[in-house]
Amino acid sequence: MTETTALPPALPAAPPAPRRLIPNARSRAFDAYLALWTGLFGLAIPIFALVGSPRAIRAATRVWVRGAFFGLRAIVGLRHVERGRENVPEGPFLVVANHQSTWETFAALVLFPDVAIVAKQELLAIPVFGWYLRRSGMIVIDRASGGKALKEMIAQSRATLAEGRPVLIFPEGTRRAPTDPVVFKRGTELLYTALGVPALPMAHDAGAFWRSGAPRRAGAITVTYAEPIPPGLSAAEFARRAEATLEANKQG
Question: Strand 94-97 relative to strand 199-204: parallel, antiparallel, unpaired?
Answer without folding.
Answer: parallel
